[in-house]
Design goal:
The protein is an all-alpha fold. It contains 7 helices and no strands. The chain is 61% helix and 0% strand. The longest helix is centred in the first third of the chain and has 24 residues.
């Protein structure tokens, strides 16, 4: 019976120590909110580069004229989202659309976002 008390108190101490470690290592609300909305870098629009990136990465789902295919039409994307909203969608993905943050540099995504934001 005495041994069981020692084992239980040891398990309780280990659980408390684990809770303290988690308390200091898990991200807070502000950090989670920051991750959920990526910050768009400042870039100057380069339309030719943006078109090349879109041709290489987007037309298989959005169509060669951005008319929509598997994915929605992007021909008037600027009427629905601003550049930062588009940047967030392309970076994180949404619905069936995958994230492109590991495939494109943030500056490339920002350039495409600026380009698409002009399509109204």
């Amino acid at each position: 019976m005495e041994m069981q008390k020692w084992i239980m108190s040891g398990l309780f101490f280990a659980a408390c120590a684990f809770a303290v470690v988690l308390l200091f290592t898990l991200p807070g609300k502000a950090e989670v909110a920051e991750e959920s909305k990526p910050t768009m870098p400042q870039v100057t629009l380069d339309a030719a580069s943006a078109e090349a990136i879109v041709t290489a990465n987007c037309i298989s789902c959005h169509g060669d004229q951005l008319q929509g295919n598997v994915g929605p039409s992007l021909q008037h994307e600027g009427s629905e989202h601003d550049a930062e909203g588009i940047y967030s969608i392309v970076s994180k993905g949404r619905g069936q659309m995958p994230s492109f943050k590991d495939k494109l540099a943030p500056e490339e995504i920002a350039n495409v976002a600026l380009w698409l934001a002009e399509k109204k």
